[in-house]
Amino acid sequence: MLLGTNAPGSIFSFIGRQRYYWIMKSIFLIGIMGAGKSYLARQLSDYFMLPAADLDHLIEKEEGQTVSEIFSNKGEAFFRQLESDLLRSSKIPYPAILATGGGTPCFFNNMDWMLKHGIVVWLNTPVGVLVERLRHQKAHRPLVAAAANDDELTIQLSQLLKNRTPWYIKAHVVLSEMPVDRDAAIRAIEDQLAQMGMAS
């Protein structure tokens, strides 16, 4: 049920039958590959009545290639620049629930930009869970495609997580319980909205 204006930059969402939120900023989901960002984005979209978007999918649509193909054909530097440009572009229907790429926060001041323009939620998924999810998807994940077995995948994911944690830890909200509980995520985001003076 959508109430109020549909003007760009403002959506009036009905929350919990009794509370209303004036959502004027986006919700950015961050975390390492396989954390479940795209899945949670769809769940939050239904609740907050904001469109869900996936940054990697938008990049693939823009280039007509998969992320792996872009890395292979044009290199990571090209990918990261395009990623940053799209993050800030009108091609994303802001305000939105945006599932970002695992490395998005770590380049071109993207994390600071997201913190300024929305609520940032880190899905702090344990490495063991990531290995289970990514074991059969490595070919589509260029940064871990070379892992020959679970042990190598664990080492590579652990190193990625260590390297990226200084950016991830800046998030407004950290979700560490597994599996990610939709209602717990909503409560944490509602609390952050209240702190930001966006709840009534």
Explain what the structure shows.
The protein is α/β, with parallel strands linked by helices. It has one domain: Rossmann fold (3-Layer(aba) Sandwich), CATH 3.40.50.300. The chain contains 8 helices and 8 strands; from the N terminus they run E-E-E-E-H-E-H-H-H-E-H-E-H-H-E-H. The chain has helices spanning 37-48, 55-63, 67-74, 76-87, 110-117, 127-134, 150-168, 182-195, and strands at residues 2-3, 11-15, 19-23, 26-30, 52-54, 97-99, 118-123, 173-175. The strands form 2 sheets. The chain has a 5-stranded parallel sheet with strand order 5-6-4-7-8. It has a 3-stranded antiparallel sheet with strand order 1-2-3, with no helix packed on it. A hairpin with a 7-residue loop joins strand 1 and strand 2. Helix 2 crosses helix 4, helix 3 (67-74) packs across helix 4 and helix 6 (127-134) crosses helix 7. The longest helix has 19 residues, at 150-168. The radius of gyration is 17 Å and the shape is globular. The two termini are 18 Å apart. Residues 1-21 have low confidence and may be disordered.
Low-confidence stretches: 1-21
The CATH top-level class label: Alpha Beta
* Share of helix, binned: 40-55%
Q: Helices and strands, in N-to-C order?
A: EEEEHEHHHEHEHHEH
On the 0 to 100 scale, the average pLDDT is: 86
Helical stretch tally? 8
Gap between N and C termini, in Å?
18 Å
Supply the CATH superfamily name. P-loop containing nucleotide triphosphate hydrolases
Give me the count of strands.
8
